[in-house]
């Protein structure tokens, strides 16, 4: 009897200890991102980069998820027209980002980046008040040109100011903070819609003006990389001879084709299922919250066991699966289920792209290399926006609801296959 009581006491104390250990482990996991962020206070330039990216994401997700639904449902434009305008923004930004990178390599970070931020803010202000098609197209063109100027300098500065061994952790933390910001943005948009759509545009523009102050106050006006003679031509020649890098950029066009459906096809389907414009904001918030909960801890754990290229391929396949089955949704609950699948694939794969680009980029032409990598977003994302809207309209017209989603799935599967072949043929492209 005495022995049985002793054994029960041991089991109870052991269970209590295990329970306490589990709670302590969960608490440590929750505060880990905050702890890692605070570590960068001693490196104010990197800390400012993280805050800048969070503000940028807040401003972007405030407005862009609502553009397709607002201009189709409220203004009365065709989905294909809105898709074409979004494609114009995508191509003007990502297709010209290499120019922003070259300018930053030559003239320094601050003037190029701040000019782009101001142009983006003006474009968002215009977008908030646009009712005519010329104004709508002009506003989206300005937002794209602004992004072309500030995107590559920021990314090149991040590569230049981080060490290779710390980039995985830095990019993961940056994406986690972007997830928080992407959660806040749509929620603010839903609240501001109670005033008017113009309030959303103004608030989004103010976010980018705030980043002008952040950049002027905290960013160094350094040139992320320059050639010894200051001539950009050798850098361009070097890039054009780098077939391994250019092939990676070309393959990633398919990845961004699928990703960009979140800006055009996803919100259109959400609105058709619910009949509410705010459903776009809700599903975007749901996706962002899921990213916030999973990305930092899931990706960190996966990175311990898998290489970056393996996670990129796997994430692409998961994202493609979610995108295809999204088209089978009969109600908003199933829609959110497949959005969750898409989100898991995206949050696994997205940080890997930054790591691989940083690994493949030549250190003396960071701005140019990073800028060229964004051409895949411009071409793939631009085609995704335009063809996404066109295929969605086509599917409705001919009563083929799975038509667009089947095309998206085919592109995603082809991209994953090409990535697998690429890394098998070019093992030097694998980031350690």
UniProtKB/TrEMBL annotation:
<feature type="transmembrane region" description="Helical">
    <location>
        <begin position="306"/>
        <end position="326"/>
    </location>
</feature>
<keyword id="KW-1133">Transmembrane helix</keyword>
<keyword id="KW-1003">Cell membrane</keyword>
<feature type="transmembrane region" description="Helical">
    <location>
        <begin position="332"/>
        <end position="353"/>
    </location>
</feature>
<feature type="transmembrane region" description="Helical">
    <location>
        <begin position="201"/>
        <end position="219"/>
    </location>
</feature>
<feature type="transmembrane region" description="Helical">
    <location>
        <begin position="136"/>
        <end position="158"/>
    </location>
</feature>
<dbReference type="InterPro" id="IPR020846">
    <property type="entry name" value="MFS_dom"/>
</dbReference>
<dbReference type="GO" id="GO:0022857">
    <property type="term" value="F:transmembrane transporter activity"/>
</dbReference>
<dbReference type="GO" id="GO:0005886">
    <property type="term" value="C:plasma membrane"/>
</dbReference>
<dbReference type="InterPro" id="IPR036259">
    <property type="entry name" value="MFS_trans_sf"/>
</dbReference>
<feature type="transmembrane region" description="Helical">
    <location>
        <begin position="402"/>
        <end position="423"/>
    </location>
</feature>
<feature type="transmembrane region" description="Helical">
    <location>
        <begin position="46"/>
        <end position="63"/>
    </location>
</feature>
<feature type="transmembrane region" description="Helical">
    <location>
        <begin position="365"/>
        <end position="390"/>
    </location>
</feature>
<dbReference type="Pfam" id="PF07690">
    <property type="entry name" value="MFS_1"/>
</dbReference>
<feature type="domain" description="Major facilitator superfamily (MFS) profile">
    <location>
        <begin position="45"/>
        <end position="430"/>
    </location>
</feature>
<feature type="transmembrane region" description="Helical">
    <location>
        <begin position="281"/>
        <end position="299"/>
    </location>
</feature>
<dbReference type="InterPro" id="IPR050171">
    <property type="entry name" value="MFS_Transporters"/>
</dbReference>
<protein>
    <submittedName>
        <fullName>MFS superfamily export protein YceL</fullName>
    </submittedName>
</protein>
<feature type="transmembrane region" description="Helical">
    <location>
        <begin position="170"/>
        <end position="195"/>
    </location>
</feature>
<keyword id="KW-0812">Transmembrane</keyword>
<feature type="transmembrane region" description="Helical">
    <location>
        <begin position="244"/>
        <end position="269"/>
    </location>
</feature>
<keyword id="KW-0472">Membrane</keyword>
<dbReference type="InterPro" id="IPR011701">
    <property type="entry name" value="MFS"/>
</dbReference>
<keyword id="KW-0813">Transport</keyword>
């Amino acid at each position: 009897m005495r022995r049985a009581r002793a054994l029960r006491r041991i089991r109870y104390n052991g269970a209590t200890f295990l329970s306490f250990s589990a709670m302590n482990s969960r608490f440590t996991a929750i505060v880990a991102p905050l702890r890692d962020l605070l570590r960068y206070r001693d490196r104010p330039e990197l800390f400012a980069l993280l805050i800048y990216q969070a503000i940028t994401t807040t401003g972007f997700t405030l407005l862009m998820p609502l553009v397709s639904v607002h201009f189709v449902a409220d203004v009365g434009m065709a989905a294909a027209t809105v898709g074409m305008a979004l494609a114009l923004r995508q191509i003007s930004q990502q297709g010209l980002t290499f120019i922003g990178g070259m300018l930053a390599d030559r003239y320094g970070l601050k003037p190029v980046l701040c000019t782009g931020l101001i142009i983006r803010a003006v474009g968002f202000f215009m977008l908030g008040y646009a009712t005519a098609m010329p104004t709508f197209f002009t506003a989206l063109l300005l937002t794209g040109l602004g992004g072309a100027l500030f995107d590559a300098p920021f990314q090149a500065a991040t590569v230049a100011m981080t060490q290779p061994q710390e980039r995985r952790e830095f990019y993961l933390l940056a994406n986690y903070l972007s997830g928080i910001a992407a959660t806040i943005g749509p929620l603010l948009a839903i609240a501001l819609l109670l005033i008017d759509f113009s309030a959303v545009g103004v608030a989004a523009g103010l976010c980018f003006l705030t980043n002008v102050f952040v950049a002027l106050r905290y960013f160094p006006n350094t040139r992320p990389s320059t050639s010894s003679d200051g001539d950009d031509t050798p850098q361009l020649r070097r890039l054009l001879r780098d077939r391994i890098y250019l092939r990676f950029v070309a393959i990633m066009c398919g990845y961004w084709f699928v990703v960009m459906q979140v800006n055009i096809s996803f919100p259109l389907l959400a609105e058709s299922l619910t009949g509410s414009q705010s459903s776009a904001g809700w599903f975007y918030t749901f996706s962002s919250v899921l990213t916030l909960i999973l990305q930092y801890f899931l990706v960190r754990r996966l990175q311990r066991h898998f290489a970056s290229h393996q996670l990129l391929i796997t994430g692409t396949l998961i994202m493609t699966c979610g995108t295809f089955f999204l088209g089978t949704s009969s109600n908003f609950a199933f829609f959110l289920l497949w959005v969750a699948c898409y989100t898991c694939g995206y949050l696994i794969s997205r940080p890997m792209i930054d790591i691989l680009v940083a690994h493949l980029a030549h250190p003396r032409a960071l701005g140019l290399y990073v800028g060229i990598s964004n051409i895949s977003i411009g071409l793939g994302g631009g085609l995704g926006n335009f063809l996404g809207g066109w295929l969605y309209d086509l599917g409705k017209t001919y009563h083929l609801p799975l038509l667009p989603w089947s095309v998206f799935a085919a592109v995603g599967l082809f991209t994953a296959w090409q990535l697998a072949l690429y890394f098998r043929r070019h093992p030097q492209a694998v980031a350690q």
